[in-house]
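User: Some background: our group keeps a shared notebook of sequences we're curious about, and every so often someone picks one and asks for a predicted structure to add to the entry. Today it's my turn. The entry only has the sequence so far, pasted here. Could you supply the structure so I can complete it?
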Amino acid sequence: MTIDRSIPRNPDADIDSMFIDRWSPRAFDPAPLTEEQVASLFEAARWAPSCYNDQPWLFIYAVKAMDRERFLTALMAGNQAWCSRVPLLMFLLCRRNFLHNNQENRHAPFDAGAAWMALALQARKLGLHAHAMAGFSREKAYAILDAPADEYDIMAAIAVGRRAEPSVLPDVIATKEVPSGRKPRYEVAREGIF
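Assistant: Of course. Here's the predicted structure to add to the notebook entry:
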């Protein structure tokens, strides 16, 4: 994969272009994804590493219009405004306890994050984009998913699809439709001591 030079991101060290190319747009084409594309996304997530190989993540997804509409009701208004065009909408959950001993798995959110990143990078390999969101009502999400809150924590909502032109978005959202930069490396990695 080559680096898309239209994306204003410049790494400070030599890295694979997939890390620069991945970003979270809001303008999506509503064309449905193929079953093969959807399967490929979740297959990539399935191979993410996890503590004790517990694989505590669970993606609950919607491709049918009626399910996507139901999932939309849990999103905050700002996210609803652009997610209405998304062909694949999902929630990422993580199991609170280990399967092998039912003890608390404090690493579950970390592991679910690894699964999310695998899915996001696979989306780019397929010519798609993924956008994770914290802007949703957990109470509504638990209700519409019929998920047991004592067993699972809902970590994020995720939209996946083909990127569209920003003109499909309301003006206030379209102005945000550019890849974001990153903090300098020294702010996120330090050698030896805090």
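Suggested note for the entry: The mean pLDDT is 94. Helices lie at 17-21, 35-46, 65-72, 77-83, 108-125, 138-145, 171-174.
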